[in-house]
């Protein structure tokens, strides 16, 4: 009789857990939907993955030099179910698939929480993850992150086991991680380090790892073989030889593209201390400063306390706490070189579930043990927990509402300019960070409408059969002044300079944006486009054509001192 009662209680609790998780998922979906505008097509990297998936539907399964193929392959079966000439349809499928994967990740995060807490606090873990504004905002961009997060989480999840045999499953998922993003190899390395640091050194440990490694190699083999066939190197990645250029600006520059710098060359030219400062010290600083910024609105409060309590986590298994620490530390350190070049916050999102584990500990301590002067009754514990979750939700809603929703007037102006640029500008234009050309590639490959369906995987080079020889092309020429850019740009047939009214210090060259207000001082620059003169209300920029004859005259006079 007692056994039946226990079984019934278990089933009842499981039913309520499922109900709570469903509610959390629904709230998370609502937050995600708030940040997405389904009337606008995907641009930037999301567009690249979209077109690659369309190419797969057409039988092109080649690999892009700068992107792994896992995400586009995942989209491929969904795209194969539709036949539309509207790129917006495929954009929204990408968004929906990405958000769906992000929602599926929530119960997996709950399962991770169960390694550390009971059902109640594991639901808190799920809430902290599901309501996290940065993750919700990112899920609708059509990027690799949702799939990468899910696969990485599962791969790491199986490390939280006493039995070494689970390393096999962990390494299988690590192989899928590498398929999804090329730097996913770091996940394999981290798993290997943690496994041998936390498992007993015996025959079973070695045997199980060997089996997992064998499966890992089998799964990644097709990707590596194909990459070797396409690029002559199974580990080829388009940016690999340019990493030690010094900055993202340099990395994307036409000078570095033609003359990449190796680590040894950089050290030879700049010294070992400059190398360590640029690529190690700056990288560490950028990783942890960026991490601190993205912990808002609630993890920034909970995590420091949770880290303190993690050293005396008597309610959690010490081994699991150790593994969680190792995942966080090794994952963040693996990004040092990347963040020395570009501090892209989305690269840190995949460690959020493990940060959230520590962030939940102070909530558990507070509810279970109260403060030094009082303790909670069971009813007070439940009420307090509900209040805490409600506060977290309110903070999440507030922070989500702060994200700027797409301004349709601004987006339409960017689309109109893209059409103008395609039809009226010809030659190389200085590429700057910013949003002016957001829709240029999209307009180019979708003209005429539906042409994007003819694109190949490496569409950046051939633009889907569109003749771009007489169209504007953006190149990045680096320099410390306008004069230096023009001097260097002459070698690369640089024709245009773009100047924004305001970019909030995200441009490569701030001095180029100053030209917007002082263009009369540069007689060798002829204005060929002014958004104000075209009646644009939101998009504020100017484009100038370089008169090299006038520039050379002024430069020669300056050199001669006359």
3D architecture notes:
The protein is mainly alpha-helical and 562 residues long. The chain has two domains: 2-238 and 271-402, no CATH class; 408-560, no CATH class. The chain contains 25 helices and five strands. Strands 2-1-3-5-4 form a five-stranded mixed beta sheet. It is globular.
The main sheet comes to:
5 strands, mixed
Morphology call: globular
Kindly report how far apart the N and C termini lie: 105 Å
**How many helices?**
25
Please write out the topology:
Layout lengths: L1 H33 L9 H14 L12 H10 L7 H28 L4 H12 L2 H6 L6 H13 L9 H14 L4 H14 L4 H29 L16 H4 L2 H5 L4 H8 L1 H22 L5 H12 L7 H16 L2 H6 L10 H18 L8 H25 L5 H17 L2 E4 L9 H6 L13 H4 L9 E4 L6 H10 L2 E7 L9 H9 L6 E6 L10 E6 L1 H13 L2
Parallel strand pairs: 1-2, 1-3
Antiparallel strand pairs: 3-5, 4-5
Helix pairs in contact: 1-4, 1-5, 2-3, 4-5, 4-7, 5-18, 7-8, 8-9, 8-10, 9-16, 13-14, 15-18
What's this model, at a glance?
By secondary structure, this protein is mainly alpha-helical.
Keywords:
25 helices; 5-stranded mixed β-sheet; globular; mainly alpha; 2 domains
């Amino acid at each position: 009789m007692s056994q039946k009662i226990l079984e019934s209680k278990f089933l009842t609790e499981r039913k309520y857990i499922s109900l709570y998780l469903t509610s959390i998922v629904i709230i998370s979906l609502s937050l995600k939907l708030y940040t997405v505008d389904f009337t606008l097509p995907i641009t930037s990297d999301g567009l690249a993955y979209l077109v690659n998936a369309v190419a797969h539907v057409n039988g092109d399964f080649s690999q892009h030099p700068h992107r792994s193929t896992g995400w586009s392959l995942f989209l491929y079966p969904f795209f194969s179910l539709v036949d539309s000439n509207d790129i917006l349809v495929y954009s929204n499928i990408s968004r929906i698939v990405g958000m769906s994967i992000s929602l599926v990740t929530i119960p997996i995060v709950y399962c991770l929480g169960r390694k550390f807490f009971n059902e109640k606090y594991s639901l808190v873990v799920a809430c902290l993850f599901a309501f996290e504004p940065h993750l919700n905002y990112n899920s609708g961009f059509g990027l690799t992150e949702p799939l990468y997060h899910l696969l990485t989480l599962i791969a790491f999840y199986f490390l939280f086991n006493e039995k070494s045999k689970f390393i096999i499953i962990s390494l299988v998922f690590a192989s899928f991680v590498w398929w999804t993003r090329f730097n996913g190899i770091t996940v394999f390395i981290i798993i290997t380090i943690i496994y041998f640091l936390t498992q007993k050194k015996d025959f079973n440990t070695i045997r199980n790892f060997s089996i997992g490694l064998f499966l890992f190699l089998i799964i990644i083999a097709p990707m590596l073989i194909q990459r070797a066939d396409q690029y002559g190197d199974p580990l080829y990645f388009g940016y690999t030889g340019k990493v030690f250029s010094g900055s993202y600006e340099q990395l994307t520059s036409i000078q570095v593209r033609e003359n990449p710098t190796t680590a040894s060359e950089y050290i030879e030219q700049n010294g070992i201390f400059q190398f360590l400062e640029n690529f190690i010290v700056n990288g560490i600083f950028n990783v942890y400063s960026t991490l601190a910024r993205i912990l808002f609105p609630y993890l920034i409060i909970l995590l420091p306390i949770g880290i303190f309590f993690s050293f005396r986590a008597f309610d959690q298994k010490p081994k699991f706490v150790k593994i969680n620490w190792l995942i966080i530390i090794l994952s963040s350190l693996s990004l040092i070189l990347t963040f020395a070049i570009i501090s892209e916050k989305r690269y840190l999102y995949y460690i959020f579930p493990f940060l959230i584990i520590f962030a939940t500990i102070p909530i558990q301590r507070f509810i279970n043990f109260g403060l030094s002067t009082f303790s909670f009754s069971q009813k007070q514990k439940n009420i307090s927990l509900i209040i805490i979750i409600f506060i977290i939700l309110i903070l999440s809603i507030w922070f989500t509402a702060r994200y700027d929703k797409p301004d349709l007037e601004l987006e339409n102006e960017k689309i109109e300019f893209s059409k103008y640029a395609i039809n009226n500008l010809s030659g190389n234009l200085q590429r700057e960070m910013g949003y002016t050309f957001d829709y240029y590639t999209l307009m180019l490959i979708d003209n005429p409408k539906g042409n994007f369906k003819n694109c190949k995987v490496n569409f950046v080079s051939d633009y889907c059969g569109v003749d771009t020889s007489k169209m504007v092309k953006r190149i990045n020429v680096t320099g410390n002044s306008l004069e230096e850019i023009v001097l260097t740009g002459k070698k690369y047939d640089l024709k245009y300079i773009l100047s924004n009214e305001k970019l909030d210090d995200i441009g490569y060259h701030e001095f180029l944006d100053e030209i917007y207000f002082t263009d009369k001082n540069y007689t060798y620059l002829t204005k060929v486009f002014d958004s104000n003169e075209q009646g644009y209300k939101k998009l504020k920029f100017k484009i100038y054509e370089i008169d090299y004859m006038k520039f050379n005259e002024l430069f020669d006079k300056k050199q001669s001192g006359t």
